[in-house]
Amino acid sequence: QVQLVESGGGLVQAGGSLRLSCAASGIGFSIKTMSWYRQAPGNQRELVAGMSSGDSTNYADSVKGRFTLSRDNAKNTLYLQMNSLKPEDTAVYYCAAVISTSGMLRNYRGQGTQVTVSS
Q1: pLDDT of amino acid 27
Q2: What's the whole-number average pLDDT of the chain?
């Protein structure tokens, strides 16, 4: 069984920074893609940023230039560095991954971490 655990959320003032972490744990798995999504109250879930196994990245237009993905393969951990945060970045941030395990590809999602940006 593979689990994704997010951490690093919190309350920050506008203009501040936070770094989110998403750690994958389990036995016998291979990560294909990892992504961050967010969902604010009353809004649909939206893709924030994603990284493929080949390290190519994509970002939502709303976060380009402010958010940066990085990965520690040894720790199976994806990081989202969020700078110049704005109140509209307030949301629950979820980590998601496509993972190969037991010869099959499966989708996994973490429990979410709250990010609140005050004005």
Answers
A1: 83
A2: 95
